[in-house]
């Protein structure tokens, strides 16, 4: 079986032929946001190379939602699952909040699990751990403290996701089913990103199975970091 590749115009043409909603404009808008913020990210990375350069965590998080590259994929996910959700529903504050919280979970987890590799490649200049260490409000933290702080941000994003999901009003029986399935798909993305980050060889997060079970990330010979477990669901009460 030969894998088939597509250029962006091919994808847009494909979406234009699909019934049930303006998938093509959604994809173009999401992809444009990704490109614009990737340029901004590159400029921020160059400006932050100085030893004493500061970073703003809030601004980084807003930009990182787009540069993680997941938002265009969410359009694809809605299309493949035949979730034809109109703009008037997607722009509801609770729906947007649910989507943004899912994106936050994806990039926070990605930054934590990729930190070891990025530190070796380029000093992890554009990683939430480094930004936490350079933000004046959190620069008092050590490296382990920054890892823990990022874990707290992930937990806050997870809480925001469920809060926003619970506040979505009814849009009718069929649309409510679409939105429920969309919420499930967003969680699939957050969980799948974590599982992929751990098991693939790109990041080489853990040195061995023992470290994976105890959640220890080893950085060279100088640091042993015990990162918090990113727990997607609370265990049920007995």
What would you say about this model in short?
Pfam families: Terpene_syn_C_2. With 238 residues, this protein is mainly alpha-helical.
Arrangement of strands in the largest sheet? 1-2
Shape: globular
Radius of gyration: 19 Å
The proportion of residues forming helix, as a percent range, comes to 55-70%
- pLDDT averaged residue by residue: 80
What CATH calls the topology is Farnesyl Diphosphate Synthase
Q: What does the main sheet amount to?
A: 2 strands, antiparallel
Low-confidence runs: 228-238
Q: H/E series, N to C? A: HHHHHHHHHHEE
Q: SS-based structural class?
A: mainly alpha
Number of helices: 10
Number of individual domains = 1
Q: How much of the sequence is in beta strands?
A: under 5%
Termini separation: 49 Å
Look at the structure and name the CATH superfamily: Farnesyl Diphosphate Synthase
The number of strands is: 2
Q: What would you say the CATH architecture is?
A: Orthogonal Bundle
CATH level 1 name: Mainly Alpha
Q: How is this structure best described in words?
A:
- This protein is mostly helical and 238 residues long.
- The chain is globular.
- The chain has a two-stranded antiparallel sheet with strand order 1-2.
- The longest helix has 30 residues, at 93-122.
- The N and C termini lie far apart (49 Å).
- 64% of the residues lie in helices and 3% in strands.
- The chain contains ten helices and two strands; from the N terminus they run ααααααααααββ.
- The protein has a single domain, classed as Orthogonal Bundle (Farnesyl Diphosphate Synthase), CATH 1.10.600.
- Residues 228-238 have low confidence and may be disordered.
- It has helices at residues 8-16, 23-47, 57-67, 71-80, 87-90, 93-122, 128-134, 143-166, 173-199, 209-214; strands at residues 216-219, 223-226.
